[in-house]
Every structure is written in C-alpha cells, then in structure tokens.
Amino acid sequence: MKHRFLLILFLICSVTLAVNAQTYSILIKGGTVIDPKNNLNQIMDVGIFEGKIKKVAKDIDPKEARQVVDAKGMYVTPGLIDIHGHVFFGTQPDHYLSNGLVALPPDGFTFRVGVTTIVDAGGAGWDSFSEFKKNVIFNSKTRVLSFLNIVGEGMRGGNWEQDTSDMNPELAAGVALKNKNDVVGFKVAHFMGNDWKPVDNAVKAGKLSNMPVMIDFGGSTPPLPLEELFLKHLRPGDIFTHAYTLLEGNVRETIVDEKAQKVRPFVLEARKRGIIFDVGYGGASFNYSQAIPAIKQGFFPNTISTDLHTGSMNGSMKDMLSIMSKFYVMGMDLPSVIKASTWEPAQVIKRENLGHISENAIADVAIFSMRKGNFGFYDKTGYKMEGKEKLECEMTIMGGKIVYDLNGIAKPIYLK
Ligand SMILES: [Zn+2]
C-alpha cells in the first residue's frame, strides 16, 4: 500500500516537472525591458513559448524553461523594425537597388544588429515585385516587407527613375492589394524634376489601397516647396524620409532653418497634421547641422531607419545601432530611441502586431548591451561627435527562435 502511494506521488511529481519544464522554450532573465507600447522600462523576465511572448513578469522561475538567457545589465526590447532598407539584391549589372549589386541580402545585415523586420524602400516596382518576392521575401529569415516604387521598374537608377509615364497608380495599387502581406505602401525616390506627378501618383496609389507613401523628395532647381508637399500633397500618416538632410546645391529645402537654428514652423504644423519624419540615413541623407538643432528643440524623428545599401553601410551610417547611438548621443532619451525603432515604425507601416513585447505577441526580441568606451560618431560632412556609450546587439530572437547570440548568453548555448 505504502509502495503504491509512493509510486503515485512519484508519477504526479514527474508529470508536474515535465509540464513545468515545457512552460517556456526561452526565458530571458534579469534584463531591463524597454517596451514603449506597454510603457515598460524596468527589470523584468520575459518567457517565450511556441513563437509567442507568453509572460512578462518580475521573477519567473528558470526551472520552467528549456533555455535561459542571462540578460543581467542588458536591455531587452522588441525586435527592431527598419522601414527604409535596400534588400532587393541580385547580380544584374547596372540594376542599382533593383535586383542589383548595391542592395544587400537582408539576413547578413539584420539579426546582428537586432533587426527582425526590414522594409525594402522602393527597390521593386509593380513590374519587378514578383521577382523580389520570389528571390528575397521567400528566401529570407528576416521579415521582409516592401514599399512598392511608383516607378514600375523600381530603383534601376538613372533615367529609369525619371520616367513619369511608368508611374502608374492603378497598376501599383493592384500589385499592392494582391500582395497585402508583403506590401506596406509606396515609394517615390530620386526624381529630379519640377513636377508633382510622382508624388501625386504615389498618393493616388496609396488612396486606392489605403496604404501610406514614403517620399524621398529627390531634387530640382528651384526646389519644389516642402510646405506644399506636407500640407497639400501628402496625407496624415505619409512619410517624409531623409528628414535631416542638407543637399548640396539648393535642390531641396530643409526642415531646419540653419540661420535661425530652428525647425521651420510649417514643419511643426506638418507634424501636428500627422506627417511622419523618418531618418533614412543613407549615404548622403543625414547632416548634424540639421539634426542637432532639431533634437535640441525636441523635434525627434518619428522613425529611425538606415537606408541600408553597400554605400551607406561602409560610410558614416554603418547600421541601425550606430544611428540609434548617434541620436542617443545627441540627447534623445533611450526609451524614445527604442520607440522610434520599434513601436512607432510598426504603427507607421500598419503592422501593429509587431514592435512590442505584449503577452501573446510574436516573439521578436532584441537584447542589447550599452558598451562603455570612447566612440566617434561622424556624418557625411566630417562633423564628429564623441560619445562614451554605444549600443551593441547581444542577441536577436525572431518568432521565438534565437537567430543571433554574440557572446553565448543562452544556456544551453544556442547552436545553429
Ligand atoms: Zn533609400
């Protein structure tokens, strides 16, 4: 009798242990969770199971997890969302950012800096989108989305991007609606003419499909007025990328009046109206002379993004974390920097299921260290700021799976 009782007790214990052992596939312990959507900025544990965030709580028992990540002294944030990258890579000579050699394969440049979602900003147009989807979207581990170029051929460079007869809003909207899981809006870029047609046709495509547009305002002499763009042509929710750039040769107006060291009044009005200001750092699209006065005035970017391509990544841009660190050094507080790289871009591209660590959300998570040392942050003009801190990616988790671990902080160690 006694033996039977012990056997039953043993069985109950084993079952309980087995169930407990499976509560979490990954448990992130002891990190400071910064989750702007949920107003979190405190030390919490994060439990993940079956690709979802299962629990965010003060102290979760490590015995309940198969794998435990020691995040003490680190920041735990939602996986980063870069809404301006160029990942329609290919081997076609002279194809620039559209199936060409200047664009980059996403997986090689995303996970190592905490990015789990990247939006290709106009590499593909309605005519080349199927190739982009087949080659890149289907074959990448990174979540790849698209701002479809209003030019059918996308960013093939040169004259291809000046052909207003190839900027068809109906065809663009048709492809976007057929590929709603992949396309999040439309892109206008590199147009060098005194003509509103590219912007207006993109907005028309946006209206037909209920999606935002992203504007790289190109250039012309004299420049088209920014005030008219923000207040007359764009809709609330539309995105102005390369917000902090000053181009050579008076071809585009700037958001900051550098003489007065102030953000222009119509820009503040545009923000109130709901125009989104995106960094889109790129090779030539960020000047401290614009960004410093803006940040001083509290005019933070809505979204931080890279404009990633072979040129920018080897120039002053580097990667998402380098830009985030730059804005932090300029005086933007860390929760705002994280918000502009997670929850805000998720809302801008209407993917509110991403960019936060709510219970039941997709488990896209990034873990960062704030490295201490002497760091230099320069821009395309050579102006340099010095900083003592810099973000470094320790781990990236995508859909509940570890996809990058810099220092082996998972136990047992993540082995690919
Ligand atoms: Zn770009």
Total number of helical segments? 11
Helix/strand structural class: alpha/beta
What shape does the CA trace take?
Answer: globular
Main beta sheet: strand number and arrangement?
A: 9 strands, mixed
Uncertain segments are 15-19
The share of residues in extended strands comes to 25-35%
Task: Give helix and strand order, one letter per element, not per position.
Answer: HEEEEEEEHEHEHEHEEEHEHHHHHEEEE
Give the names of the bound compounds.
zinc ion
The mean pLDDT is 94
What Rg, in angstroms, do the CA atoms define? 23 Å
The share of residues in helices is: 25-40%
End-to-end separation in angstroms reads 50 Å
**Record field, number of beta strands:** 18
